[in-house]
Amino acid sequence: MTGVPASAAGGSGATPVPRGGKLGTAAVNQASLWNIANILTMVRLLLVPGFVMLLLHDGGYDPVWRSFAWAAFAVAMITDLFDGHLARAYNLVTDFGKIADPIADKAIMGAALICLSSLGDLPWWITGVILFRELGITLMRFWVIRHAVIPASRGGKVKTLAQGAAIGMYVLVLTGPLATMRFWVMMAAVVLTVVTGLDYVRQAVVLRRQGLAAERYAAMEAVTAAADPGAGPGAASTEAGGEPVQPVSRSRGAAEAER
Description:
The protein is mainly α. The chain has helices at residues 25-30, 36-56, 63-89, 95-118, 124-144, 154-171, 177-227, 235-239.
């Protein structure tokens, strides 16, 4: 769960995105709100209250109802994979998808963690670490979104899979070796959560610095052009006594939400 929201990774209509291609403003504007990626995201949002009711039914300790809750959680995880694939394969970008996709991801994960901790199945410190990381990275993405997109890393995707597998194992009523295994899977997910979170912080700081540098360069160019219409690009920095400063290009690539 993740980077740019999954449903924000495409553009418009049913034309596949060329490998290595970039999406333009026109493609973003043409995407319909009622596309398949957004519908899957909405399904995932609707599954959250159903999942909670199933998990907590009859006190939260009925193996049958918890199996139903696991099925709902699994469907939510699968829809997350599919809307990301569809959004990357086709141009399906909407403002709704950019906002709703990360909310849906965090909602199902957060609901599962809080419910499991309230039932005493999962230590609260694990829930706190994961939720703090997820909320912090989401806010950080909005902090730098004006300058660039923080791409989802391979580690972030592995972290999402580990979290989903661990939470799914805790939702089920497991005993014996499987109960021991789920603890170590959760520990691996926690480690990945912390490590990838620190990496995203590093990326956010670097991208914000590059974005601010690009804005300062553009402002200098605008002032120089206004004062001397005949001045060429880079004149502002050269007149200041230094080497011409090259503008920092903004990342326009789209990627899945790290989950």
